[in-house]
Amino acid sequence: MPLPSSAMPSVADLYELIYYPGGSNADPELPAWLHQLLSKRTPGADLLDVACGTGHPTLLLGDVYNLTLADKDRSMIQRARRNARLSGVAVCRFLHARWEELSSASLGKFDVIICAGNALAQCSDAAAIEASLRTWASLLRPEGLLYVDVREFPTGRFRRNELLELYGPVHWQRHAYLVIARERRLGNRLYRTKVLHPISGRGVGAATAIYRTDYFMPTKTVLLRSLETCGYKDVQEVRRPGKWVFNAYTAVRRNDGLSP
Description:
Rossmann fold; disordered N terminus
């Protein structure tokens, strides 16, 4: 029998159970690498994470940068606030907003903008990606740095409703879950579904909750062209460590009158 909705993990709960430090599929190398990548930026610089999730790993940069964290999911922002307190980050702005809603008129300008964890792929199409890059360029100071990554999914790996990943057991509020992730790829569009099954002494139960995310996977050519079109220069592909293969890039906002 399915568990009551009050016992089901929120999006933030599930995110932390799987990806947060200590989670079943966490990415422990990312924080130190990101810190090193940004090490040439002046301490005290203003940093915006446009898709912060529950705050990891950006909160670990709170001792060096002035942080602003934004996310479209309310449960993510609420958890990020809590994690900031637990991490001892005293000064940090939190925004429950989609990144296209962010405005320099209300937020000011930033020296660094981060869009990590394949968040850019949640754009609906190439036009939405370009609009996002323009928004971030408008929020960056001249010579400000953008970091963005997109997870690489080899096309030969996918078949219809292929079982891609299995996590578990993950534990939340005295309940144990088995998390099954399935992905279906059609062209450059990816449909990812996470299904939770409660585990008990009787075995694995029926599906309790389903979390669906649709991705648009931009090709490297599309992303590089969009960065150039939207007011960036010095685009560099950087090798991102971790369990998965990411196409990761840094770019600098132009200051030549062509930038947004």
